[in-house]
Amino acid sequence: MIQTQRQNVYDSYLEAALKKFKPKDLELYDLKKWKFDYRFLSILEYLKKDHTELKGEILKPLEEVLDGVFRFPMLEEKFACRLLTEVAYFQDWCKKAGHQIVRPNSMNNYGAILDHFGFKTALSDLVSSVIQPLANRLFRPEFAKKYGLDSHHGFLVEYEPGKDTNLDFHRDDSEITLNLCLGRQFQGGDLYFGGVRCSNCREVPPYSYEEKYVQHEPGVALLHLGAHRHAATSIKKGIRRNLILWCNSSGFRKNKSTKKDCPVWCGARS
């Protein structure tokens, strides 16, 4: 009975979000209108050309801060602010309409699922035209290139004192994760990384060389494997909001389900 009531509430919310909510800033819902950082566009163009070596002046803004964790400027800050304003507009609309917002996942209590109110097409395009070519060049082929990224879960998370302040150590439910900081002003809230692990080895502690703290910066993105365990440290001041895009591959998951041994990419094998 309780489960049925919850499903009815969810169905009502989703129908309202998709059919009744009227976007304010229409350009945001079309990936072709997104304002990418010029340095990122150069990086993307270079990687799409399938150069043999990943080095050169163009790639300097693409920093591998830890083995398998890439940091790069992605969006113009003003455009990132527009995304935040639109999400806030949707949240305010839900409040006035009496709809309880479905939260991004079981770990985050604040934020919104972007696919629920019009961003699904733009984020699908982002996966196919941006994340896929990046992942093809930056990660082992079985995660993206071999089978392709064919689905996603896109959402915005919020951290601030008095609400969600941190995030526990975990793996993402994705093959590739994009973590894009939208802003705005904050102190603390770094991302801690602690080793790539398969599902069977998720509890194996990190080695010292696998550990790294990475700072967030508005407009700057991190790209990493979903299996790369991480946590968000406590935010001390201000508000940090990030766009998270979990990119999935049904081919990778189908192939993984037939194998029980620890894969070669699992850091626990070191």
List keywords for this structure.
270 residues, alpha+beta, seven-stranded antiparallel sheet, four-stranded antiparallel sheet
Description:
The protein is built from five helices and 13 strands. It is α+β, with helices and mostly antiparallel strands and 270 residues long. The longest helix has 21 residues.
Quick synopsis:
With 270 residues, this protein is an alpha+beta fold. Helix content is 29%, strand content 26%.
| Mean pLDDT score | 93
Question: Main β-sheet, in a few words?
Answer: 7 strands, antiparallel
Please report the distance between the alpha carbons of the first and last residues: 49 Å
Strand content: 25-35%
**Count of extended strands:** 13
Helices and strands, with pairings:
Blueprint: H1 2-19, H2 38-48, E1 63-66, E2 69-73, H3 77-97, E3 111-113, H4 120-138, E4 151-159, E5 167-170, E6 176-183, E7 186-188, E8 191-196, E9 211-214, E10 220-225, E11 228-232, E12 235-238, E13 240-248, H5 250-257
Antiparallel strand pairs: 1-2, 2-10, 3-4, 4-13, 5-11, 6-10, 6-13, 7-12, 8-9, 8-11
